[in-house]
Design brief:
The chain has a single domain, classed as YggU-like (Conserved Hypothetical Protein Mth637, Chain: A). Strands 1, 2, 3, 4, 5 and 6 form a six-stranded mixed beta sheet that branches. The longest helix is centred in the middle third of the chain and has 14 residues, at 47-60. The chain starts with a strand and ends with a helix. Helix content is 23%, strand content 36%. It has helices spanning 47-60, 87-94, and strands spanning 5-8, 11-19, 26-31, 34-38, 68-71, 77-83. By secondary structure, it is an alpha+beta fold.
Length: 97
């Protein structure tokens, strides 16, 4: 399966699947059309969400403020909005490169 990206103006909506309490922060791979993001933070008080935004921003080489949570603040499956120029980087991350 391939990563599901949806254009929304000058942004891209991407579905991610979060693995909290991981051994290390890691972005890579794809499952059922969602980008896999693993973070060391626990899913309490929004810590895992904040970690997801930081880790993905670093992986995409954009400012953390450019990665926005659109849907799924309390779920493992989330929808994020990122700048449109990151589409190729998202695809590479999904392929594990």
């Amino acid at each position: 399966m391939t990563l599901a990206l949806r254009q929304s103006g000058d942004r891209i909506l991407v579905t991610i699947r979060v693995g909290p309490r991981a051994a290390s922060n890691l972005v890579g791979g794809e499952r059922d059309g969602a980008l896999l993001v693993r973070v060391t933070a626990a899913p309490a008080d929004g810590k895992a969400n904040a970690a997801v935004l930081r880790v993905l921003a670093t992986a995409l080489d954009v400012a953390p403020s450019e990665v926005r949570l659109v849907r799924g603040s309390t779920a493992r499956t989330k929808v994020l909005s990122v700048p449109a120029g990151t589409a190729d980087a998202l695809r590479r991350l999904a392929e594990g490169r």
